[in-house]
Amino acid sequence: MLRFLIITTIYLSLVSCQTAVVQTGNVAIGYNNYPLIITPGLKLKLNKAIIIPGESTSLHIQDGEPRPQQLNPVENYRPYCVIEVRNRLAATQTIKPDIFTITRVFLDEGFVSLFPKLASLNMTASYPVLYLGTSGLTAVVYITEIYLKSDTQPDVVKLACKQWDDPMMGAHLTLQEIKLALGELITILPETPGNN
What we know:
By secondary structure, this protein is mainly β. Mean pLDDT is 76; it is low at 4-33, 116-125 and 130-134. Strands 3, 5, 6, 7, 9, 10, 11, 12, 13 and 14 form a ten-stranded mixed β-sheet that branches. It contains two helices and 14 strands. The chain has one domain. Strand 5 and strand 6 form a beta hairpin. The longest helix is centred in the first third of the chain and has 14 residues, at 2-15.
């Protein structure tokens, strides 16, 4: 444990000069190793309709393509995003092409333990934790939650862009990596005076 704390301290010291500020509501929060510039007020444009399957509230997107709902719809170690709606319905839900305003950006991390035997999936924590053995952290899910607002589609809540990475050397996705995951399906509009 002492060894882990020493390595963590050294790592944080090395990246402490790479601080960015993200506005969360009225509070500005500084994050280390944050090479992403997505701020409240920017716009996202959905260029093609997305269909959320029945009995679901989300759909995965990777390489600009919606991924079918299955146990593992994406390659976790490459950038991907999950678009989420507010309510789970029995029927499919269609998100129509629209322009969404980013209202808030929040960074989070989830922890994954990879071992040969599946032990449990803990959904009681504030984030899902996958335990595949008795112990041992082997990956971190770096999550950028982008909260969305549309007057015409208020049930669309957020876009969560993620990637599994090394616990010590990993980082949240860059703007370019998020654009790679979204492809032409969703574009981040450039900031202009008329865009706010």
